[in-house]
Amino acid sequence: MAHVVLKDLVKTYGNFKAVNDVSLTVNDGEFVALVGPSGCGKTTTLNLVAGLTPITSGDIVIGDRVVNDLDPKDRDIAMVFQNYALYPQKSVYMNLAFPLQMRKLPRDEIDKKVKEAARVLDMTHLLERKPRELSGGQQQRVALGRALVRDPAVFLMDEPLSNLDAKLRVQMRSEIKRFHQDLKATIIYVTHDQLEAVTMADKMAVMNGGFLQQYDSPAQVFAHPVNMFVASFIGSPAMSLIPLEISTANGGTVLTSAEGWSLGLSPRNVQKVTKATTKKVVLGARHSTIKLHKSAVPGSIPAKVYTVEPTGDVTFVQAFLSGAIVNVSVPPNIAVTPDERIWLEFDQERMHLFDGETEMALEAS
Amino acid sequence: MTIVTGKAEARRKLQPGRSGVLRNIWAHRADYAYVLPAIAVMLVVIAYPIYYTIELSFYKTPPGLQLRDKTFIGFDNYTTILTSEVFWKVTWNTLVWTFGSTFISFVLGFATALALHRDFIGRGVLRAILIIPWVISAVAASYIWKWIYHSDFGIIGAVLVGLGLTDRPPNFIDNVSTVLPSLIVVNIWREFPFAMIMMMAGLQTVPDQLLRAAKVDGANAWQRFWHVTFPHLRNVSVVTILLLAVANFNSFIIPWIMTAGGPSNASHIWITHIYELAFGRQRWGVASAYSVLLFLILMTLGYFYVRALSGNERKEGGA
Hints:
The complex is a heterodimer. Chain A is of the alpha+beta class. Chain A has 9 helices and 20 strands. Chain A has 2 domains: 4-227, Rossmann fold (3-Layer(aba) Sandwich); 240-355, CATH 2.40.50.140. Chain B has 15 helices and 2 strands. Chain B has helices at residues 2-14, 20-27, 29-56, 76-83, 85-117, 123-135, 138-149, 155-162, 179-203, 208-216, 221-232, 234-249, 253-258, 270-280, 284-317, and strands at residues 59-60, 71-72. At the A-B interface, strand 6 and helix 2 of A face helix 10 and helix 11 of B.
């Protein structure tokens, strides 16, 4: 295994910058998820690392080698694709053997490695089958096996679970995680599903518009999103973002809404909003940090219920507040009906504040 | 809904004496009514001529169109054909013509398709130019090539003489040993674009991800072709080759216009020979017997064609 370093990586197509000065380091044995919406440049970044797409500028280091101009086969990588990309006319055995045959390994060594990979992935009984005779999950396991036999420095995975149904996806998620733990493999994993990234990765790189937004552990990204994009992208349901304005009332700093209400701030949060470049501030709060009250309590803000979504364990309430929709989760035994008047209380410790102009998180120094 | 169906079912059961097939037809009578006109036309223009050809093949026919004076002679026409020297000559020519044209057209078309599959400037124009031989009329092409090959005024001869490679322009199509290869060249020129189009369409269906996977697995360009592209194109190749083979077996325009089978049967293939027997020498019976044999051979090729098409589906579904 090896570490991977991306340094000022740029990929342009004509005038379009698909990947924009991306720099990050994947440590040896680390599982890193590249996550972002469609077209954010995450797959392009992976293809740059793989060598399937030539880079425009920057450096890619795998192990201790700069691999910028090397062919994919010389980069010591293995890749797992979204559509499995198994050779349809070859048996599972031959699919696993193919990368080794291309490396001109002796036949008995190939046989040993293929059987070992099949044993690790528990598919010895499938070796003689053709890919079309396998289920989606089995096909993806063969694809993993084909990557595994190579014993590469880095595993690159391009949305490997997107084609599986929801149940199988959860199952394969833990299989891949287990695979990573057992092999201590360095893995770069592309996904548009933030849940996959959060649950599997040691670190996640959130991308948008070709830019790397934040690169940190999932817990850190979840707790301290650097900007409004990351805040709204990570977490489900998404973080509620409410546009407000800074003003002064009774000598203290408060946030006022166009609707007329205002929200007092803790000293620490006051410190944060003083950093704002303009008067505009966006309040961010996750569903679990907002309390729902049936009647007014001090510090709470009136809102109107829009929809109620019971999920069994927890009921999600969406409410209108200052032109934004706010997600609140409540225990299922609390009955709320649409259009009902409710009061919301924000947790001063766990709320997020963003600069309304730059969209960056405001931090107390 | 159920009540209506139940009634219809009951009414059907009341009509006795219908076998399963007839009842089935009756149940789908509207569907049959729709295809009936087409079936009627097919019976008149296809089924009857086939029947009449088979019938004629067992008769000795007088020249001219007084076919009522024909006399039944059993398999005599067939024996005549199979024992004649011309038959074996023509059959050999047909095999050379069919397999030579088919194989080389396919290889050339496939190679061109691979070349045009890469992205380069002028690809669209080149593709359009290469399709021209296939879209122009075969008659026009035959006349053009007749002039190109002409022993006195042909451009090939002129160029060869001009370059000093030969003293006299070569005789391409008036020479027993060169006439058939010369015609095959024309045929290949005319039909390789067909193979090219088919293979280009096939190439577009090769999954890009599979090629990328092979690249990462360490396969070079040739290995990617051999392990990914070519297996993927197996079915379209089989279909293309069969279609070319059937078309070549049935070729008429190019050999007929360019040489009419000459000199001394050196470029006669089955179709031109049958045509000459029937409409040149008016030996209807022998020509019919020839046609029946040809029909049987083409049906065999057709069988493989259908099997190649449906075999694919069977493999996808079963196993």
